[in-house]
Specification:
Layout (H helix, E strand, L loop, with lengths): L3 H18 L5 E7 L5 E7 L23 H8 L7 H7 L3 E3 L6 H10 L12 E3 L1 H5 L6 H17 L2 H17 L5
Parallel strand pairs: 3-4
Antiparallel strand pairs: 1-2
Amino acid sequence: VIFAPVVLLLTGIAGALIALTMGRPVFYTQQRLGKDGRPFTMYKLRSMRSAKEGAAVTATRQGDPRITPLGSVLRRFRIDELPQFYNIFKGDMSLVGPRPEQPELARAYAQKWPQFRDRTTLRPGITGWAQVRGTYAADEAESQQKLAFDLYYLKHASLMMDLSILLQTFKTLVTGSSAR
């Protein structure tokens, strides 16, 4: 509720720019796994060109050609993530926690690393320890490192750790660092 005026204003401006430069749809929805592995629909502002019909599910990579010029700016300052406050309002997500994963990728990772399922013992977050400590996970090695950060967070989660994550996230938002 506290963030609603800023979130709504920035989302409206970004949505109008997306509609003008990329057309519709403005919002991007994707199935993700939440607490206890339950699927939910996660909302984002569209920052990429639409995937081709039947294209394989892949993580976004550095310099991904699907990202539009406007999408690059939206991603840099995490404006594309603002609609996830609606997911918080609905109870699908929290502000801090492990990032929710796509079901297909979660299944593949859980086969390689059985402890990957442990990430779903908490409600997923818009930001988390893996986001402020690591980098964006685009390959198997980076995903394994992200998992290690998430498991560390699960073991040491506290109000102080969450406040530290929020402060580091704010710094990232201001500087626009580590975006893909």
